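Here is one chain, start to finish.
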Amino acid sequence: MKKLLFQFDTDTHPSVFDTVVGYDGGADHVIGYAGLTPENIAGLVDGAIFTRAPKDKKNTAIFVGGNNMDAGQKLFTAVQKCFFPGFQVSVMLDSNGSNTTAAAAVAKLASSGSLTGKKAVVLAGTGPVGQRAAAMLAQEGAEVSITARKIDRAITACNNIKLRFNVDVKPIEAFDNNARAEAIEDAHIVLATGATGVELLSLEQWQNNSTLEMIADANATPPLGIGGTDMMDKGTVRHGKIIWGAIGFGVLKLALHRACIAKLFEDNKQVLDAENIFALAKEMA
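Its structure:
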């Protein structure tokens, strides 16, 4: 029986990236739907859960994606509300790569040294990857802060993290590189999750930081988020700091994404969100 992955996207068009990884993860067919909301999802879910016998439902799965993590989380919840005993399929949330990218980055940092009790700063951390990574760092015992150009955005993100994961994250307003350099003065870990092609720190602003132990940068498009690093860094030591570049930990991100897709087809009861995706990332790292 064919393994069917239904890609439910909140954007105008289903993600090409997620479609490719869906096939690479073991789906025989990936069927994409776009512009989905909690209000228009029920009929599609019904089509997925009513069409195959109980023993065959493991061959149907749902992937929720799109650029907006808040919209994705709401859609993910709405999909599950359509399920009832005997009528459900496995489902995964990874809006904008938020869960798999954050999980891979934090898992690689954790493989490089203890996170417990360390001060971690997520630069430009109000986006999907930044919020998920901040939560994962906090769950690993780190004291976490996130920066934003405007304090209200940082506060909103921290409140969202508290509501979803019940962990405390500190908001910091950091309008420019100099403010971000001040924000990391006593940090042990820095993770950059800013917009593509925006440098958040120059080399001079971190190379002589005496407390800094580990850096990860999720940006793979020059200029990188952290100057003086390389997107290919895989635990590379630069100026006494362990560095993970976007491609360096991106190998794990892709492998993790594919492994999650494969896991969806193990049975029809998988629900893959941040917590269990991160747990799998730590095993794979």
